[in-house]
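PROTEIN DESIGN WORKSHEET
SECTION A - STRUCTURE
LENGTH: 260
TOKENS:
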């Protein structure tokens, strides 16, 4: 079975054509990016507002409750409701995207809200003391400090949408889900297993790329990175020097060694 899957993945026939693996990956990424983009337009401003003002926290709870909704059941319900009202390929695309947007709003909203709410109130007060007001505090203080949790929510959203976009094939949409649905229907379990493997690898690849982006855009001071540790050492050179000599200082919670 494994040898058959490897042969299927490395075959040029598998990758070529409109229904080939390369085209299916592009379709899958397109559906996923579209869903995350629409969900971000909704969830990011809402999360910033709830986190900044502290109002309507029930919206975050309500969004998280949507995680319990069965995706496949919701997909069929939306398709039966919207499908007859739409013509052409949009009859398959719109219901699928609506369901995927509902799926990825909770992790994005929760990440933005949690990140903004976790900002130290003293930091906000200092910003206001410098003359910042309203959106200036949000843009220049809260968003930079909330980036780690915001990007974590985005990574979670991408993982969920890439894995779940496969179910859209049940109502006729393309993407990698076609290998799973069509393979099971025809008994071609090699392409079914190969498609599932490609979905998993694609999710891991996208998560790895987003992790790299997160590492590049988030300040090391927020993550405890090397630059942040170096900065703390420069602020307290006595601690840094004693650490390099292998000794202890009062600031480290120990007792300085006897010079004699």
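SECTION B - SEQUENCE
RESIDUE ASSIGNMENT:
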């Amino acid at each position: 079975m494994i040898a058959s899957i490897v042969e299927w993945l490395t075959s040029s026939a598998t990758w070529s054509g409109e229904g080939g693996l390369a085209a299916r990956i592009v379709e899958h990424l397109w559906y996923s990016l579209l869903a995350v983009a629409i969900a971000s337009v909704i969830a990011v401003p809402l999360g910033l507002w709830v986190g900044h003002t502290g109002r309507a926290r029930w919206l975050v709870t309500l969004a998280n409750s949507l995680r319990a909704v069965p995706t496949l059941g919701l997909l069929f319900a939306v398709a039966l409701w919207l499908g007859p009202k739409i013509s052409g390929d949009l009859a398959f695309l719109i219901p699928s995207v609506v369901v995927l947007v509902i799926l990825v709003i909770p992790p994005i909203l929760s990440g933005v809200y949690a990140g903004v709410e976790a900002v130290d109130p003293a930091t906000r007060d200092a910003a206001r003391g410098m003359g910042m007001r309203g959106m200036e505090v949000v843009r220049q203080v809260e968003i930079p400090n909330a980036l780690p949790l915001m990007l974590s929510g985005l990574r979670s959203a991408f993982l969920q949408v890439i894995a779940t976009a496969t179910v859209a094939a049940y109502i006729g949409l393309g993407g990698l889900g076609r290998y799973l649905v069509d393979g099971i229907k025809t008994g071609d379990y090699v392409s079914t297993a190969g498609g599932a493997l490609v979905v998993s690898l694609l999710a891991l690849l996208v998560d790895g790329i987003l992790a790299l982006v997160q590492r590049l855009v988030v300040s090391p001071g927020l993550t405890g990175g090397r630059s942040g540790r170096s900065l703390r050492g420069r602020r307290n050179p006595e601690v840094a020097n004693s650490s390099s000599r292998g000794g202890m200082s009062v600031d480290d919670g120990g007792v300085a060694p006897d010079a004699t």
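SECTION C - NOTES
The radius of gyration is 25 Å.
Residues 81 and 163 are 24 Å apart (CA to CA).
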